[in-house]
Design brief:
Blueprint: E1 2-7, H1 12-22, E2 30-36, H2 42-49, E3 53-56, H3 66-85, E4 90-93, H4 102-105, E5 112-116, E6 127-129, E7 135-137, H5 144-150, E8 155-162, E9 172-179, H6 186-211
Parallel strand pairs: 1-2, 1-4, 2-3, 4-5
Antiparallel strand pairs: 5-8, 6-7, 8-9
Helix pairs in contact: 1-6
The structure holds 5-O-phosphono-beta-D-ribofuranosylamine.
């Protein structure tokens, strides 16, 4: 069961998958490819250290307008071609900070999942009901950790979901609540969220690898 992981940053979620694989705790799944849009993503070094294929597929700068849209489409096709080479059973977005459109997604139907560092509602709505019966805003986009702090929430979490063309939406595979402490700043909160993320992504990948199918998962 082959996995490709897309990252943009440090790759601590990726490392959790490597560690689980080494511990025989990933349901027999193997991470065989790591791809980043950023050359300086430390996650690429983590892959190279283990002899796992690591690819940098940069998003070329282009003047706004038609040229940028064309460059973006070409980048998604290139990304898909690199990933498709490894014929992954699953593509994991773990801290991948680019939005992927059907140009990419069409190549991997129902087999792309994303780790989102906030709670998301099953109905794609604007609020989430927590286990304690509190209704809080559903946080989407690239700044949900500082958003949770700024909103003065005392709870947030992380969600692994199937990727659909709508950003930070799609069927939820698993999620964990994470408390926000009065003393938290962005880094302390994000570290606590990442602890939960590492456990969540391993659990979901193991279940998908052992259940043998993605269809109907969540
Ligand atoms: C994770 O919190 C992920 O949910 C978010 O960006 C962070 C990436 O962290 N999208 P890392 O690169 O896995 O350490």
């Amino acid at each position: 069961y082959s996995i490709a992981v897309l990252i943009s940053g440090s790759g601590s979620n990726l490392q959790a998958l490597f560690d689980a694989q080494d511990a025989g705790d990933l349901g027999g799944a193997e991470v065989n490819l790591v791809v980043s849009d950023r050359a300086d993503a430390y996650g690429l070094q983590r892959a190279l250290k283990r002899g796992v294929a690591a690819a940098h597929v940069p998003l070329p700068a282009a003047p706004a307008g038609a040229a940028r849209r064309a460059a973006r489409a070409a980048w998604e096709e290139r990304l898909a071609a690199v990933v498709a080479t490894f014929q992954p059973d699953l593509v994991v977005l773990a801290g991948f900070m680019r939005i992927l459109s059907p140009i990419f997604l069409q190549h991997f139907p129902d087999r792309v999942i994303n780790q989102h560092p906030a709670l998301l509602p099953a109905d794609g709505g604007e609020t989430v009901l927590t286990s304690s019966g509190l209704r809080i805003p559903a946080l989407r986009g690239a700044h949900v950790v500082p958003d949770a702090l700024r909103l003065g929430l005392n709870i947030t979490g992380c969600t692994v979901h199937r990727v659909t063309p709508r950003v930070d939406d799609g069927p939820i595979l698993a999620q964990t609540e994470v408390p926000i402490l009065p003393t938290d700043d962005e880094s302390s909160l994000h570290e606590r969220i990442k602890i939960a993320e590492r456990q969540l992504i391993v659990q979901v990948v193991r279940e998908l690898a052992t259940s043998g199918s993605l269809a109907g998962q969540g």
